[in-house]
Amino acid sequence: MTPPDQIGPATIAASVKSIPQPVAAAKSGKSAELAMKLFPPVLVFILAILGWIGLHYGLSEEKAITVPLPWDVIEIGFLDSTNLSFILDGLWISAKAAIVGLAVTIVLGLAFAVAMSQAKWVENALLPYAIAMQTTPILALVPLIGVVIGFDFISRVIVVVLISVFPFINNALFGLLSAEKSQHDLLTLHDASRWTRLVKLQLPAALPAIFTGLRVAAVMAVVGAVVGDFFFTQGDSGLGQLISLDASQLQYERMYAEVILAMFLGIAAYLSVAFFERRAIGKWHTATRAGV
What we know:
The protein is built from twelve helices and no strands. It is an all-alpha fold. It folds into two domains: 49 residues; 214 residues, MetI-like (MetI-like fold). The radius of gyration is 27 Å and the shape is globular.
C-alpha cells in the first residue's frame, strides 16, 4: 500500500483506470443491441429502394411511368400539401374502419373461442362456420352485404371482421385449450366453477396465443379496411378508393404514396398490439431461440 504522503497524480490516474466501468459497458451493450436491431431493416430498406429505382430504369418507356421514382412519389404524394391532405383524409377513413372492425373482431372472436373451449359439441357446432367465413371469397359476399346492409362505412367494417376474425378465434381457442391437465385437476379437486376455471386458469394461460392471434388480426384488419374500400364506394373515400381512382387516372405518384401509407398503417397496427402485449405479459412470458 502506498503511504499517503507518496500519493501523486500518476498514482490516482492509475487507480481510476483500474476501477470497473459497468455503466459504460452497459451503455456500450445497449448501443450494440440497438445497432443489431436497426441494421437489418435499414439494409433491407436500402436494397428495396435500389431495386425500385432499378425496376424503373429497367422497364420500357411506356411501362416506366407505372413505376415512378421514389423522389417523385415523395414530392407529389407527400410534399404537395393538397395531395397530402387528400391522402391523409383517406388514411383516417381506412384507419377508422380497421379500428372499429378490430374491436368487433376481439369481442366476437373471444366470445366464440370461450364458448368453443367450454364444450366439444359447441366447438363442433361453431368452428365450421368460422372456417366458412374465412374461406368464402369476399368478392362473392359483396353483393349480399351491399343489398342487405348497404355500401357505406358499416359494410367496410363487416369486411374487416370477416377477414380478421378467424385467425383470432383460432389462436384464442388454441390458447384456451392449452392449460395443463394437472392444473385442471387441481381446480377440480377444489370444486372450482367453470367461471373460476376460465378466469383463473384458461385466460391467463391463453394470453400469449391470444396476442399472437391479435397481431395477425390487426394486420388483416388493415387489409380488410383497404379491400372494403374497393368494393363499397359510397361515403367518404378511404385508401382503397383513392388507390383505385388514382390508378384509373394514371396518377401513379399519388397511388404509390397511398400504398406506402397503407403499409405503414399495417405496421403501426402490428406494433401497437406488440406494445400492449409487452405491457400485459412481457414480465412473465419470454420468447426463446435455439442457440441463443
